[in-house]
Amino acid sequence: MQKAIEALTGEGSKFGGLMEAQSKTIRGQLSNIEDAWEQMMNEIGKSQEGISGALDITGKLIENWRTVGKVVLTAAAAIGSYKAAVMTLAAIRKVSDTAKVLNTGQQLEAS
Prior knowledge:
5 helices
């Protein structure tokens, strides 16, 4: 059986060289490009297996963009409210300190 296959596909035989001839056609070249592309993607996939977890999380974030957006907006509003409260307290302290200085000045003038 092996000899029969070799006789049909070996060099100088009836089918010998057909693969090489086919690989030079447009269809054959496209097939070679597809094979090379698949091999490249497989190699990239094997070398990047650790990234799959990050891609999974990214996919879930994208799928749930509405919920994520609401959470981000709520957090931003909370941070904004916090900053506004801190700024208000700082302004109140300045006014209070100024009032104390003015009060002390008035007491010094009265004495």
